[in-house]
Amino acid sequence: MTDTTQAAPYLFGYRKYWAQRFGTAPLLPMTRAEMDELGWDSCDIILVTGDAYIDHPSFGMALIGRLLESHGFRVGILSQPDWTSAADFKALGRPNLFFGVTGGNMDSMVNRYTSDKKIRSNDAYTPDGAAGKRPDRAVNVYSHRCREAFKDVPIIIGGIEASLRRIAHYDYWSDTVRKSVLLDAKADLLVYGNAERQVVEIAHRLANGEAIGDLVGIRGTAHFVKTIPKGYAVKDSTDIDKPGALMPPVNPYQEEPACDLKPDAPSSLLDAGEHAIRFDKLLMRSQRAKTVLRLPAYEAVKDDPILYAHASRVMHAETNPGNARPLIQQHGNRQVWLNPPPIPLTTKEMDGVFDLPYSRLPHKAYGGANVPAFEMIQHSVNIMRGCFGGCTFCSITEHEGRIIQSRSEDSIIREIEAIRDTSPNFTGHISDLGGPTANMYRLACKDEKIEAACRKPSCVYPGICPNLNTDHTPLIKLYRRARALPGIKRIFIASGLRYDLAVESPEYVKELVTHHVGGYLKIAPEHTEQGPLSKMMKPGMGTYDRFKEMFDQYSKEAGKEQYLIPYFIAAHPGTTDTDMLNLALWLKRNGFRADQVQAFLPSPMATATAMYHSGKDTLHKVNHKAPDIYIPKSVKQRRLHKAFLRYHDPKNWPLLREALKDMGRADLIGNGKHHLIPSFQPKGTVPETGKTQAFKTKYTGLDKQKPGVSKSKVYGGSKGKGR
């Protein structure tokens, strides 16, 4: 089993598999005919994905496929197979080692449905944007078809869809708590996170003759166990984070002894080496790596939102690779064992992954079809991964981790040169140098020992940690070197900027604003009010104001008229009608108009999702007596909060008038500059009578409704003024 203190082997240090003799494929094959051209009689590994196959490192299956190929394995791709039968899953024959299954770069449910649960009309990861090319819950469906095609072949699931469903999780689309996807998919093993280390180790161990059932204890994986492994102690998670008295009383551990038992207490459930323990400081130092935390069983968390919130809190506390312990959760008569996160890749390993021989093009089978996601990222460069921001509504941290993994400057420059020299439609413009954020490149804790021991959910909330290095010098140096390359006309920064970090480096802000803003710059205050901001773990508007001053100053010095594009969230847990009204007034006062407003979509495992489901502030200890937080969850409430963000749209005025009257703010209805919305209605903008009634409802502010978040893109005029 995994020891949290062990060092990770070098990613490219394995002895290559014998099939390396076949060399590098121009493109990983998607048909038997392509396999024949390569001289293959079979594939060692077949990757099944819900995306079009783009041979580009921004597409997960291409990255994993090329990485496995570099280790000598023959890798085939089944891209968007017909899931209505097993026929397509037999197209490349039986894989010698395993099927690797993912829903794609996006969760298949998020990909298909809007936050209002309406079916989307397009799919950015499909040729010509066609919708309906992947099933709902694609990981489950693809896994079942793989099993139907070749019953005895191991199935390993991964990607963001599996990653965010690795334990019992709240599912927004069914409004239920579902089991770990490992059970629903009937897979043998789950890998979570970016997964390079896990996948490479799994492939080599299977190639060396080990059985899939023997691959236990690999970091970044989840699997089934029958008994607690020898040498492991069990810690009851409620002894770490008590969820409070249950009403009615239930035992979430199915008769498992409580943690106040002595380590060797006799019990029929502990005969296989399982024993409950208490921690003192000495025990924590000596036994932490050999302790598993038992979460409440699936049967308990699915029926009790407070226990669900408790399990979420414990899981999020065990995400630092330096100190995380394994987790175990009962699902009926099966137990899911979740190993600690993988050790982050070193810069050398990151370079190795991104320097692989990608063609950076869609597979030739698509002809001239346009894949919207590829069009967006084909001339962008990923310079890092991970995020230590800890925003509660975001899933990046749950998937990629909080520790930043950065490429070397040389590797990034090589990729820019490759784009310049090989991309058939390159015009001299790099669309982005970024990642999950624009400006966390090479930022890390100042002390590795402190980093390994830290259990904070964020390095920048409620303020920037004094142990965090915020030096942007390496990023400034990278920008200058990149834009000096021959043939490079302009480099834009399109990734979202963490402006609370940027203000720590005025030199960086000046560099960015002077050379890398294409008229607009995206930032994400998310809200103006402290109530929702405190539930998001986001800084207040004072930091935004400081950044805006810098942005305006350096834009003026550069002789440029440039605009900020702030993103805001509505209907986030903790957001009241008054909060949204105040945000709308701020938007109007500053001349901003929202575009593309969307409602909050609670993604599996996110902290804000636990708030949405439980109605409690899960950033603090939760129990049944804890006060509820206001969560706009109903369709009517979410519609109102979206309308506040688009206060300027005449179609929203009838709804807003009704709400403002009910809130006692009819003074904001009128035709003056100080009013939010006018008292008149332009001809042709009033919904039909029947539809108007659907908008009407009483908005009483802090009512008893439980748990919802709406994201909007806001365009403003020069220096924050209207345009």
UniProtKB/TrEMBL annotation:
GO terms for molecular function: 4 iron, 4 sulfur cluster binding; catalytic activity; iron ion binding. Residues 679-723 are annotated as: Disordered. [4Fe-4S] cluster binds at residues 387, 391, 394. Gene3D superfamilies: tm_1862 like domain (3.80.30.20). Binds 1 [4Fe-4S] cluster. The cluster is coordinated with 3 cysteines and an exchangeable S-adenosyl-L-methionine. Residues 707-716 have a biased composition (Low complexity). Keywords: 4Fe-4S, Iron, Iron-sulfur, Metal-binding, S-adenosyl-L-methionine. It comes from the Bacteria. Its cofactor is [4Fe-4S] cluster. SUPFAM superfamilies: Radical SAM enzymes. This is YgiQ family radical SAM protein.
